[in-house]
Amino acid sequence: MGTLIIVLASALAVIAAYVGVSAYIASVAVRARRLPLLFDPGLPHENVTFQSRLDGLLLRGWYFAAGLECIVIVNGGEQNRVDPVTDTLGLAADLVGAGYSVLLFDLRGRGESEGQASLLPNNDRDVAGAVDFMRERGHEQVYIMGFSSGGAAALHFAAGDPVAAVVSDSCFASVSGMFVRVLARRGCPHIMARALAWGASLMGRVVHGLEKMDPEAIVGRVGCPLFFIHGGMDSGVPVEDAYRLFRAVPNPVSFLWVVPGAEHTQSFRTARDEYVGRVTGFLAGVSRSSQQGAV
User: Which of 29, 53, 98, 200 is most buried, by CB atoms within 10 Å?
Assistant: First the structure.
């Protein structure tokens, strides 16, 4: 009996340690730092403030007025509205030059926006607030461009609230896969990373609601046209994730472009002219289809 009690106590201790470590990993993985806003937009713009949907946090950004059709850009990772890795300012300038109004804004806890930053939870609320703002400005045709975790937030939002189209750049397919890669990059052996990632994913679902953020499960509920872009040399999120997302889309009006030689969220920098041409061509096709359907 004494041996059995020791075995049970040891098993419970191991389980408790696993749960504790998993909860810690999940908490660290969803936290994001607030990076300062260091750049000037360099384009005529309006400083704007609007509320995140549901919890009303104040979000801040830059509104570039150009045309009736508009694009909301959603940053990834810990970046704010100015992502020098992706070059969101250069992208915004090119899109404004193509005739689109653009909103660059800070997700919660980033740049100048209120709240605590998180890499996944609640970012769809901020996307919703940005879309609401653009609609209040009279933009009926709203497109969303999301990068990495910003792509996941865009897909999450679009799965429950119709928009004209979504462009998702460098999005991961699953939260658990993301945890495995994060742990592996931090030196954790692959087998241990997979074991811990399962627990971290579970705790993320229980504590942080990440079950709603699995892009591969979400994307089938998105009714608007989708354009997936992924770097062919992406070392952060494997290109296979893009193929998985593309295969999970039932909507026939969806496209995938793998950019040769591009790293994570680097496709615009790698092939700038082609990138803008493909994105605006895709959106123009969506616009034409919408107009034909309205006739």
Answer: 200
